[in-house]
Amino acid sequence: MQQSNIKQGILLPDISLRVQVLVPYPVARAYDYSVSEGMTLSIGDYVRVSLGKKDTIGVVWSLAGDKKFDPARLKSVQQKYVCPSMPKVQRRFIEWVAKYTMADIGSVLKMSISVPDAFQPPKTAKAYTLTDNIPDKVSSNRKKVLDLLSDAVPRRAADIVREVGCSSAIIRAMASSEQLKSVPLSTPAPCLIDEVPANTLVFSESQKQAAESLTQLVAAKEYSTALLDGVTGAGKTEVYFEAIAETLRQGRQVLILLPEISLSSQFLDRFKRRFGIDPAIWHSEVSPAKRRMAWTGIAEGKTKVVVGARSALFLPYADLGLVIVDEEHDSSYKQEEGVLYHARDMAIVRAKLGNIPVVLVSATPALETMHNIKHGKYRYLHLPSRYAGAAMPEMRIIDLKSASPGRGQFLSPVLQQALMETLAVGEQSLLFLNRRGYAPLTLCRACGYRFQCPSCAAWLVEHRYHTRMQCHHCGYSRKIPKCCPECAVEDSLTACGPGVERIQEEVQAFLPEARTLILASDIVTSTKMINDAVHQIEDHKVDIIIGTQIVAKGHHFPSLTCVGVVDADLGLSGGDLRAGERTFQLLHQVSGRAGRGEKPGRVYIQTYMPTLPVICALAANDRDKFLEAEAEEREKAGLPPYGRLAALIVSGTDEGKLDLFCRTLAQKAPRFDDIRILGPVPAPMAFLRGKHRRRLLVKTEKSVALQKFLDVWLSSIKVPSTLQLKIDIDPQNFY
Ligand code: ADP
Ligand code: ZN
What we know:
Layout lengths: L3 E4 L2 E4 L4 E5 L8 E4 L11 E6 L2 E9 L16 E2 L7 H14 L3 H8 L12 E6 L9 H10 L7 H8 L3 H9 L3 E6 L19 H15 L4 E7 L5 H14 L3 E5 L7 H11 L4 E3 L5 H12 L5 E4 L11 E7 L16 H12 L2 E6 L4 H8 L4 E5 L10 E6 L13 H12 L3 E5 L8 E4 L16 E3 L4 E3 L6 E3 L13 E4 L3 H11 L5 E4 L7 H12 L5 E4 L12 E6 L13 H13 L10 E6 L5 H8 L2 H15 L5 E10 L2 H13 L7 E14 L2 E11 L4 H10 L8 E6 L6
Parallel strand pairs: 10-15, 10-16, 11-13, 11-14, 12-13, 14-15, 17-27, 18-25, 18-26, 24-25, 26-27
Antiparallel strand pairs: 1-2, 3-4, 3-6, 5-6, 5-7, 8-9, 19-23, 20-21, 21-22, 28-30, 28-31, 29-30
Helix pairs in contact: 1-2, 1-10, 6-7, 15-16
The chain binds adenosine-5'-diphosphate and zinc ion.
């Protein structure tokens, strides 16, 4: 029942007995709930409330309810969960991200409440220990159990069975005759660190300086952004470990963000070597039980280090003291579904709100990041050369116009020769092609029919390994038919262009003795499989690795000395404003896999456009000059970081309705001198997952309050329920 207050003789509903609760659903604001007598709530408390017909977890967002709602008609908060409440900085972060990305705040909250299990009382495993009831005469098996447990360490039934070799029925029988009793066995939070081991490496002069600067930034306990810039193999990881050590000495928590696919055992092994303990891991493959333990440990402040993919940014850290964003330029930091946010940018926001340092790490920093360095917004720390003087690999450009591969082949004679020589001296090679499968297009020689996805404007990619044809956009797949579906001619189908599987076939044909391995996300599908593959390469059970971009990241293979880039031009077509920059980053990363041990490395880059600035920059290893030229172009065009962009993507099944709406949308845009609206135009992927797509691009001067403008514009328009409108602030992809 609601209470009422009598103040100055007037009967007032007691507004203190209502709260606003934010729920993890696509809602734009917190809703009012009443609080029953006896329940005390504070802002940030996790509570259970009903929403429509279901119950949900929510967070108390404010204590002042909206007076216009009749308290008697409000639903009441059902339960307050016993766990640390959501810290203020976390709530402000959620609000900030929602406002910036223009996403519903409830959807942002959802990313923070990703482990609903964490709110249930922990399901402790049962363990057994001795009672006072020690029988005189027992069977030999029972005696063994009693002896085992005499050390007073409780054990799970399965462990007793294993250690004693008895059956589990015996344990149950002993429990029911009260010779054993069960006690809860709780699992401790991951990554508890009391003592921080000292660094045992001898740092180079530049490592020493960088480590000292980072340690000082951590010691200052205030917001700062630093970039740790250094070629692949410069020893950046070892340097930022020192910043982590300093944060741990303060007793605070650390978040290390990595692109998901870099979360391999190699990084974790190094972490363990340095700190003597495993960090908590956070990414899509972590089991629910582990997530729950990590979530709780993080909320309680016990778990000290989290290594995670971008979603780890939304965990409820009790006392976060440092964020590291490794491979800060990586495009996978942009989430392209649900809430469209850039984890690197939001990490900086999180650091500002928490008044803590953030360290960006890269061998090929993003143009935006270098721009901020130039304007004095970030600290700059530089490791100019590889650790222990290891040389950078020698770069050779192969002009495919003159050194063309044989008929039906994709590796030029120069590259084939290099692979043979590398194999002959017992070293490893890597062939890089950022395309999964066997061939990107299959056509019928008889009638010209091309296999296309029924739901997307895309060719089907042949995967011989899976014996299927697949759409890489929606996941549609079909069997590879024997004859053409159009003209029914048998054996008329022919593959056009290469994927990694076709490159493997080519290598096997001219180097049958070489042991090859494909590293592509459809073949090594789990972290465990990636780890196994990495071990095979480390143990030199593989001679030639053929891989997509998952090989580009972080790995350190000392015997790998030869890298071949099969098609450097692949990412350069299309109108993406970052195409050149991304190609440079990716190919530089790939090249960095060569010669990381004592032996020098060689890199061969196959291209039809050897005079393109990005290819020349790669050959000359001149990143800064390339970035300067790119920056100049962008400044001239008023593109980021010199201007701002937002994309509107509208999609729907009815093309006529879609076009009509998009025209109205564009017409209704308020006009300003410093804001340009481009489009609507059909998106490069004009048909995706059965929906037609149109894009509009909003381009503004840097100083324009872009979100505010969009708010005013879009609030004047109702999107028909059959169409979807997505807003992408700072778009990274333009498909
Ligand atoms: P980056 O992160 O810049 O690519 P890493 O930190 O991975 O470079 O270092 C490359 C290799 O050199 C690693 O195997 C690392 O353990 C080793 N290394 C780096 N610095 C030192 C050092 N001061 N002493 C010994 N080994 C080092
Ligand atoms: Zn498709």
